[in-house]
Amino acid sequence: MLPAFAEIAPGVRRILAPNPSMMTGPGTNTYLVGESAVAVIDPGPIISEHVEDIVEKSKGCIQWILATHTHPDHSPGVVLLTEMTGAEVLGIPAPDGQHQDRTFAPTRILADGDVLATDEFQLEVVHTPGHASNHVCFRHAELNWLFTGDHVIDGSTVVIDPPDGDMKDYIESLQKCKDLDCEALAPGHGDVIRDPARAIDWIIAHRLEREGKVKAAIEANPNRTTHELVPHVYRDVDPKLFGWAERSLLAHVLKLEADGLVVQANGRWNRLI
Prior knowledge:
Elements: E1 5-9, E2 12-16, E3 29-33, E4 38-41, H1 48-58, E5 62-66, H2 77-85, E6 88-91, E7 108-109, E8 115-117, E9 122-127, E10 136-140, E11 145-149, H3 167-179, E12 184-187, H4 196-220, H5 226-233, H6 242-258, E13 262-265, E14 268-271
Parallel strand pairs: 4-5, 5-6, 6-7, 11-12
Antiparallel strand pairs: 1-2, 2-3, 3-4, 8-9, 9-10, 10-11, 13-14
């Protein structure tokens, strides 16, 4: 069980937002990086006591408010935190589509390779589309840690929800994170991941295994919709989650379609080869 508050590395503290659920696990992790000039990563949802806790534990030293992406469990708290601190907001605006936080309005739009520097630390922006097109991670140069938001989470996988979610981009971004050769990953949900390469390899293997199940299911059950294919592909998943599973299944078939392996007509899918 994660503690509500912990110093997880020198100059890095984690506050657990009180929003546990089937989708968020123990809750959303908010990170405070630095002491005299603090970068807040992912203030989480609008929960006043959580935002007040961020301000208190930052001791009035918040310089930047960062969002890894604009899903509703990660960025809506930015508005209240900005009102309370006047800190600069950094990230990438919400893309079109459902499940996006339209209140997020960065004063500075981040790009891959940008660096945020203080006398205590440097954070490098790593653009990691896939789970969301505007998703970024932040690499702490001194620790060689990566704050991964929802791109890599502890002990589970995330939903890839088209059209903004893209399975091909997601897998490529996972490899990009692995190539950074970081010492640890600080995820948006769950505990610190101390063996990044192993964790990322597991996620990639899991996704490719699921892709194989999708291809097999389409071959064995031709001319079916994604809704009809879900029980064949996700036999290991609680049926209560089939709605979300169907979104990731769609991401898989769209990747297979782009790869020239399946074709669809009127929402029904068939193997090409």
